[in-house]
Amino acid sequence: MAATATSASITAVQQWYEKFDKGDIDGVVDAFTDDAILLVGAGESDDYVPYGGRFVGKAQIRHYYTARFAKTMQIIRPLCGLKPFIQETGRWVVVSGTIKDTHSGGRTLYEGRYLHVWSVNPDDYKFASMSMFFESRHTAL
Fold this sequence. Notes:
With about 140 residues, this protein is of the alpha+beta class. It is built from 3 helices and 7 strands.
């Protein structure tokens, strides 16, 4: 049976999280289109994580994730939270759950709920954009 657009888009997103959890920088970056936009801390949540910003194109996205995977930061979020919510609507895949990011020294950088909105190209299942939102009530930084 052929995969539907729904299952292929969700599968692409789930595979990205698996690559992220393994620290596979090439797999993480290659999943984006050449001109993709990564928005970390979108909307009113732009000040809730110390690692936010807007990154355009694979070079900037690679630079961002290289810093995120640096040994000074520990990311505690198997598949971005236990039992995350995931749903597809049109070309978007929405994922929500909880995360905890800590510095290698143990200091919490962010702990709370998040919402990721992925824009998936239906032709090749690469990501045209991903926007990350973070709840405003979270553990103090």
